[in-house]
Specification:
Blueprint lengths: L18 H8 L5 H15 L14 E6 L10 E6 L2 E7 L5 E4 L5 E8 L6 E2 L3 E3 L4 E5 L19 E3 L4 E4 L11 H6 L4 E3 L5 E3 L2 E2 L1 E5 L2 E2 L4 H10 L5 E7 L13 E7 L6 E12 L3 E13 L2 E25 L5 E29 L2 E25 L5 E29 L2 E24 L6 E26 L2 E24 L2 E4 L5 E20 L2 E19 L7 E19 L4 E12 L3 H4 L3 E5 L2 E4 L7 E12 L3 E20 L6 E25 L2 E17 L3 E20 L2 E10 L2 E4 L2 E3 L2 E12 L4 E8 L7 E7 L2 E9 L3 E10 L23
Parallel strand pairs: 1-8, 14-17, 33-36
Antiparallel strand pairs: 1-4, 2-3, 2-5, 5-6, 5-7, 9-10, 10-16, 11-12, 12-13, 14-15, 16-17, 18-19, 18-46, 19-20, 20-21, 20-45, 21-22, 22-23, 23-24, 24-25, 25-26, 26-27, 26-28, 28-29, 29-30, 30-31, 31-34, 32-33, 34-35, 35-36, 36-37, 37-38, 38-39, 39-42, 40-41, 41-44, 42-43, 43-46, 44-45
C-alpha cells in the first residue's frame, strides 16, 4: 500500500502480541480492550446530549430581511447571538424570511449578512416575546466607515443543500492538516489509501475555492495532508449538488473555501502554530486584502514544515487450493520524513462599471517531500519459525509543482440577468524519485539495489460560460457551457545496480501519454410556489480520451481510446409543512471517471512482494442517488437515502504465478447498493454550552467478480460529537470526537472500528484582535487504521499508526475591518480531480 504521507511502504500496522493473537485478529474480531478504547471515550462525549433543557415558546421566531426599497433579500445569512456567541443560524428564503425554532428563554441579538449589503446586528430581543420582526439592510458603498462585528461562529451549520463546517470555530483544528479536519467533519471518512467518503459513499469531487482540485486518491490525500487548517475558512459538504456543478462525484461535492478578506482598505490576518507529537509540526498563514473603490487586490501565502511518521504492521497468510496455510509473511516498517509546503494565491478584481467586473487569479504550489523508510519482512514456516528475512531500505524524494491562472468576468445584462465567463490554465510538474536496497538475511542471501524516477507533466485548459435569468420574483433560470482539454505525459524509469553500473530495467520502465477532452452543457430552473420550493436541471457531458503506452525493446506499444456521453438529471422538491417542519426530496445521477493514474498500466513497486498497477480498460461508474429529509427548524434534521452504483470500480488484488507477489489494481467489478439513515441535532443545554451531534448509518451491499464471484454486505455507523463551551471573559473550550464501526469500501477489504477524541481551549487577546489557541488531538491514541484484506490465495491483517496524538499552540492576529462581502465564483473543470500530486 501507499501510506498517508505519500511514501512507498508496506501494508500494515503495529506489531506485537502472540502469533495466535494475530491470527485471531485477522479473522475480523476486536478484543474487548480495543472495543472499550473506542466505546468509553465516545460515551463520555455523547452522554450529556440528554440534558437538553426545555425551550420557551411554541411557534418559533422569524425575521424578514428587506432592502432599502422594502424588497425581500433572499439568501441572507441570519445568525442568532447570545452574549456574542452564535447559537443558531438560518438562511432567508425567497420571501426574505428566516425562521427559527423555539429556543431557550433569554435575550438575543441577530447578525444579518448578505452579499453587497452592510452587515447589521439587531437590538436585543427577549424570548418569549413577539414572534417576528422586519430588518432593513443598507447597500455597501465606498464611503462606508469601519465597522467591527464580533461573534463566535458555530463549528457546523446545516442548510437545505449543504452542511458548512466553520474550520476556525473549532479549537481542536488548531495546528491540524486539512485532511485531519476532513476526518472529523460530519459524515466524512478517509480510508488508508486516501479515498474520501461522504455519508458512507465513495466518489467525492473535491474543490478548493469553487474549483475542482483535479486530484484523486493518494494524490489528493497527499495534497490535503500538506495543507494547514489555518488556510481554510470553511468546508461545504454537498451530497446532492445542482446541475451547475460537474457531474463527477457519485457521493457529492466537498468544497474547501480558503481564507479571504474583502473589506475596504488594507486588512488581513496572520496565523502561526507549533505542534508536537512524536515529531514537530509548524504551520504559518498570511492573508492580505486591499480594496478601494472599484479595485480589489488579494494575497494569501502559506508555509508549513511537518515531520511525519508511519508505523506499519502486516501479517499475510498464503493458502493452498485446499485452504491450508502454506506460507506466512510478517512485515513491519517505520517510515519518517519531512514535508515542506509553500502555497501562494494572489489576484486582482476591477469593477469597470456598475455592471461589469473582471478579475485574474494566480496560484502556485510547491511541495517537497523527503523520506527515510525501513521495512523488515520475515518469511515464517507454518509453525511460526522464521525461515528467512528481507530488510528493505528506501529513500523517497517527491517534488510537486503547480501553477494556475484564472481569468474571469461578470456582466450584469439587466436587473434580472447576469453572465459570467471563466478561463483556466493549469500546469503540473511532478517528480517521484526513490532508491531501494533489499537484503536477504539468510545464508547465501542476496543484495539488490535499484532506483526509480517517475516524472509527470499535466496541462489542463478549461473554459466556462454561465448565465442567470430571474424570470419572475420566485423563478430563476440558469444555463451554461463548459469545455476542457487535459494532456498528461508520464514516464517511468527503473535502473538496477549491476557490477557498480546502473542498467536500465525495461521490464519495469515505460512511457504513458494520455489526452482527454470533456464538453458539457446544463440548464436548471429554481423557484417557489406558496409552500413548495423546487429545483430541476440536467447536465450533458461528452468525454473522449486516448491512452497511449509507448513501448520499448521488451514491451509492446499499445493504444486505448474511448468516446462516451451521458445525461445527468438532478433536482429537489421541498415542502414547508409549517413554520418549523419541512420535507425535501432530492434525486441526482452522477459519474466517477477513472483517475488518470488508474488507467496507467505501469508497475509501481510498493515492496519486494507487493506491486501496484493501473488498468487502461477501466470504465467510468454511474450512480443514482435518492434522499428524503425532514427538518425541524435548526434543531433536528433526519434523512433516509438510497443509492445504486453500476460499473462499480473497486480496488482488487491479484497474485502472480508463483503466488508470492501480490498486485493492487482497480477494475469494474459489478454493482454497489447503499441504504442510509442520518440524523443531526443542534442544541444548547445551557447558555454557555452547545452540542452538535450527527450520525450516519449505512447498509451496504457490494456485488461483483474479481477472480471469484463476490457479495459483501455490511452495516456501518459513523458518529460525530462536538461540545462548545463559553467560559466568559474571552475563554472558550471544546471537546469533540468521532467513531466509525466496522466498515467496507472495497469488495475485498474490511476496516475495523476507529475513532478519536480531541479537546482544546482559546482566549481572545490584544483587544480581541488576537486569539491564542491550545489543542490536544487524539487524546487516547485510537486513530489507527486497521483491517483485513482478502486476496485470491491469501489474507492480510494490517494496522497503520500515524503521528496523530499532537499538542498544538496557535496564535492569530487580525487587522483591518471584520465584515465580509461576496466574491465571484471561479470556474474550472473536474479533471483536476484525477491528476497526480507529489
Amino acid at each position: 500500500m501507499v501510506n498517508r504521507a505519500g511514501d512507498i511502504c508496506l501494508t500494515g500496522g503495529e506489531g506485537g502480541g502472540s502469533m495466535a493473537a494475530l491470527i485471531g485478529r485477522s479473522g475480523g474480531s476486536l478484543s474487548s480492550t480495543m472495543k472499550d478504547s473506542y466505546f468509553i471515550p465516545m460515551m463520555l462525549l455523547m452522554l450529556p446530549v440528554w440534558a437538553f433543557s426545555q425551550t420557551g415558546g411554541g411557534s418559533g421566531f422569524s425575521l424578514v430581511i428587506v432592502n432599502e426599497r422594502r424588497q425581500p433579500v433572499s439568501g441572507a445569512t441570519v445568525r442568532q447571538l447570545q452574549k456574542g456567541t452564535v447559537v443558531n443560524s438560518q438562511v432567508a428564503g425567497e420571501d426574505g424570511r428566516a425562521v427559527f425554532a423555539p429556543f431557550n428563554k433569554g435575550t438575543y441579538r441577530f447578525l444579518i449578512s448578505s452579499a453587497g449589503y452592510q452587515p447589521k446586528t439587531t437590538d436585543e430581543y427577549r424570548w418569549p416575546g413577539p414572534g417576528s420582526d422586519t430588518v432593513r439592510l443598507v447597500l455597501l458603498n465606498t464611503s462606508l466607515q469601519e465597522m467591527t462585528v464580533t461573534a463566535h461562529l458555530p463549528p457546523v451549520e446545516r442548510k437545505r443543500d449543504k452542511t458548512v463546517v466553520n474550520v476556525e470555530a473549532s479549537v481542536t483544528n488548531t495546528g491540524a492538516t486539512l485532511l485531519e479536519v476532513l476526518e472529523r467533519s460530519p459524515g466524512v471518512t478517509v480510508d488508508r489509501n486516501g479515498g474520501i467518503s461522504l455519508n458512507g459513499k465513495q466518489g467525492v469531487l473535491v474543490m478548493i475555492d469553487d474549483k475542482p482540485t483535479y486530484l484523486s486518491g493518494e494524490d489528493l490525500n497527499n495534497l490535503l495532508s500538506s495543507m494547514s487548517a489555518s488556510q481554510v475558512a470553511r468546508i461545504e459538504l454537498m451530497p446532492n449538488p445542482t446541475a451547475r456543478y460537474d457531474a463527477a462525484g457519485s457521493a457529492g461535492v466537498i468544497n474547501i473555501k480558503t481564507k479571504k478578506s474583502n473589506s475596504d482598505g488594507l486588512n488581513g490576518s496572520f496565523t502561526t502554530s507549533y505542534g508536537q507529537g512524536v515529531y514537530p509540526k509548524n504551520n504559518n498563514n498570511l492573508v492580505l486584502n486591499y480594496r478601494k473603490g472599484p479595485l480589489n487586490i488579494f494575497f494569501n501565502y502559506s508555509f508549513s514544515v511537518t515531520k511525519y511518521l508511519t508505523d506499519l504492521y502486516a501479517y499475510r497468510r498464503y493458502f493452498a487450493d485446499d485452504k491450508s496455510v502454506v506460507a506466512i509473511l510478517q512485515q513491519s516498517a517505520y517510515f519518517t520524513g519531512t514535508v515542506d509546503n509553500h502555497t501562494v494565491k494572489t489576484g486582482v478584481e476591477y469593477r469597470l462599471s456598475q455592471g461589469t467586473t473582471v478579475g485574474m487569479a494566480l496560484t502556485g504550489v510547491h511541495i517537497h517531500r523527503k523520506g527515510n523508510n525501513a521495512a523488515h519482512a520475515d518469511w515464517l514456516q507454518t509453525d511460526g519459525k522464521v525461515d528467512s528475512s528481507v530488510l528493505t531500505q528506501s529513500r523517497p524524494v517527491n517534488f510537486f509543482r503547480n501553477g494556475a491562472i484564472n481569468l474571469n468576468a461578470r456582466q450584469r445584462l439587466s436587473e434580472n440577468a447576469d453572465l459570467s465567463v471563466d478561463l483556466d490554465y493549469l500546469h503540473y510538474a511532478v517528480e517521484r524519485k526513490q532508491d531501494f536496497d533489499n537484503q536477504l538475511l539468510a545464508p547465501g542471501g542476496y543484495h539488490e539495489v535499484f532506483r526509480s524516477n517517475v516524472p509527470t507533466t499535466i496541462n489542463i485548459f478549461s473554459g466556462k460560460l454561465d448565465a442567470t435569468v430571474r424570470v419572475h420574483p420566485g423563478v430563476t433560470l440558469q444555463a451554461g457551457l463548459k469545455s476542457s482539454s487535459n494532456h498528461t505525459d508520464n514516464a517511468s524509469a527503473y535502473e538496477n545496480l549491476e557490477n557498480q553500473q546502473w542498467v536500465k530495467d525495461d521490464t519495469r520502465s515505460n512511457h504513458f501519454v494520455y489526452q482527454e477532452n470533456i464538453h458539457a452543457a446544463y440548464g436548471t430552473i429554481e423557484g417557489k410556489y406558496h409552500r413548495l420550493s423546487y429545483q430541476a436541471g440536467s447536465r450533458y457531458e461528452y468525454t473522449s480520451y486516448q491512452a497511449h503506452q509507448l513501448g520499448n525493446r521488451l514491451q509492446k506499444d499499445s493504444t486505448v481510446s474511448r468516446n462516451y456521453g451521458s445525461l445527468f438529471p438532478s433536482g429537489y422538491l421541498s415542502y414547508k409543512l409549517d413554520t418549523l417542519n419541512s420535507l425535501t426530496l432530492t434525486v441526482a445521477r452522477r459519474i466517477d471517471r477513472p483517475p488518470f493514474q488508474s488507467l496507467n498500466p505501469f508497475l509501481y513497486i510498493i515492496n519486494k512482494y507487493t506491486y501496484e498497477t493501473g488498468n487502461p480498460y477501466l470504465l467510468p461508474q454511474y450512480s443514482w442517488n435518492y434522499e428524503l429529509t425532514h427538518q425541524y427548524g435548526s434543531l433536528l434534521t433526519t434523512g433516509v437515502s438510497y443509492s445504486r452504483l453500476s460499473n462499480y470500480f473497486s480496488q482488487i488484488f491479484l497474485s502472480d504465478t508463483t503466488k508470492t507477489i501480490l498486485y493492487y489494481t482497480q477494475g469494474n467489478v459489478g454493482r454497489a447498493y447503499n441504504l442510509g439513515l442520518s440524523a443531526s441535532v443542534s442544541l444548547s443545554p445551557l447558555r454557555w454550552w452547545s452540542v452538535e451531534l450527527s450520525a450516519v448509518y449505512n447498509h451496504k451491499q457490494l456485488r461483483g467478480f474479481s477472480g471469484n464471484n463476490y457479495m459483501s454486505t455490511i452495516d456501518q455507523l459513523h458518529v460525530n460529537v462536538n461540545h462548545q463551551l463559553d467560559f466568559g471573559k474571552g475563554y472558550t473550550g471544546e471537546l469533540s470526537g468521532f467513531y466509525t464501526t466496522r466498515s467496507r469500501e472495497d469488495i475485498q477489504e474490511l476496516l475495523y472500528p476507529a475513532g478519536q477524541v480531541s479537546t482544546g481551549m482559546s482566549k481572545t487577546v490584544l483587544k480581541k484582535k488576537g486569539t491564542l489557541k491550545v489543542s490536544y488531538r487524539d487524546i487516547f491514541y485510537t486513530g489507527a487504521m486497521e483491517g483485513l484484506t482478502s486476496f485470491p490465495d491469501a489474507t492480510e491483517y494490517f494496522k497503520m499508526k500515524r503521528d496523530s496524538r499532537v499538542v498544538s499552540v496557535a496564535f492569530t492576529y487580525r487587522f483591518g475591518k471584520s465584515y465580509k462581502i461576496s466574491r465571484h465564483l471561479e470556474g474550472a473543470s473536474e479533471e483536476k480531480e484525477r491528476a497526480p500530486n507529489g
